[in-house]
Design brief:
Number of strands: 10
Bound molecules: S-adenosyl-L-homocysteine
Order of helices and strands: EHEEHEHEHEHEHEEHEH
Helix content: 25-40%
Radius of gyration: 20 Å
Distance between the termini: 60 Å
Length: about 250
């Protein structure tokens, strides 16, 4: 049985960061369901008669309900159409892929995931730093900023802070005040270096460095909006400061 549905990562914005495989698969699609973080230039790989359905949300508007998207994927596949679900970055990172995979499994539809470059990789590249650095820490944690609003989630934030991992926070910029307070309460140092990267890899990309104490103020003053990532941890120190810090330790 051939694949009927592809969950495809369109990468972080720069169309050159689309994989060859994603480009080929886009070209197979009869129907494309497209999220709003996807650079529509990647649709140049689609067949001219492919149906394109935009299912994302823009500027705080309500997005197409997930159940509707899953149903549409199933019904189109059952008609014999090849469906490509295009998502920003990597479909498996905060891409709501679980719901769609469940719908495919429930209906016996063959699906395949085509990975993409996630925003965290693009943000590190934008900053000119490695995402992991063995001289600084054990690794990174990809975290959603959504849960900062839930008081009962404090144990989770305390564990993250104690881990010493670099925190790469998706969907956190609009909740920055709350997030900062939560992290400080969870034991993070106010001096912890932070980077904010807006639209990593796109032409409109911007990056700002600050500390945890000034994170929310910086987001406000610099008017940084979604899509943006917050990267928090020693690995985000300015390279010069970092070098001297390492030299002092030696
Ligand atoms: N699947 C996507 C993430 C989807 S969640 C991926 O792998 O990248 C949406 C969040 O991702 C945004 O709110 C923002 O925090 C982040 N994001 C996506 N693209 C981004 C980009 N180009 N620059 C910075 N952050 C980005």
């Amino acid at each position: 049985m051939p694949t009927q549905v592809y969950l495809v990562g369109a990468g972080p914005g720069d169309p050159e960061l689309l994989t060859f495989k994603a480009a080929r698969v886009i070209g197979l699609a009869d129907v494309l369901l497209v999220d709003d973080l996807v650079n529509t230039r990647v649709l140049s790989h689609a067949k001219p008669n492919a149906r394109v359905v935009y299912v994302g949300k823009r500027g705080g508007c309500v997005s197409t309900p997930q159940a509707f998207i899953s149903k549409l994927m199933v019904s189109e596949a059952q008609k014999g159409h090849i469906v490509v679900r295009l998502k920003g970055g990597d479909p498996s990172v905060f891409g709501r892929a679980a719901e769609e995979i469940a719908a495919m499994r429930d209906t016996g539809i063959r699906y395949e995931i085509v990975p993409g470059i996630t925003a965290a990789s693009a943000a590190a590249a934008q900053l000119g730093v490695p995402l992991t650095d063995r001289s600084i820490g054990h690794g990174v944690a990809l975290v959603t900023g959504h849960t900062a609003e839930e008081e009962e989630d404090e144990t989770h934030w305390r564990a993250l802070v104690a881990s010493g991992l670099t925190l790469v926070i998706y969907m956190g910029v609009s909740r920055c005040d709350r997030l900062t307070r939560t992290l400080l309460r969870a034991g993070a140092s106010a001096h912890l270096p932070c980077a904010i990267v807006h639209a990593a890899s796109a032409q409109s990309a911007r990056e700002v460095r600050t500390t945890l104490l000034h994170l929310a103020k910086t987001v406000r003053l610099e008017k940084i909006e979604s899509p943006a990532l917050l990267l928090i941890g020693q690995a985000m120190a300015e390279p010069v400061a970092l070098r001297s810090a390492l030299a002092a330790q030696a």
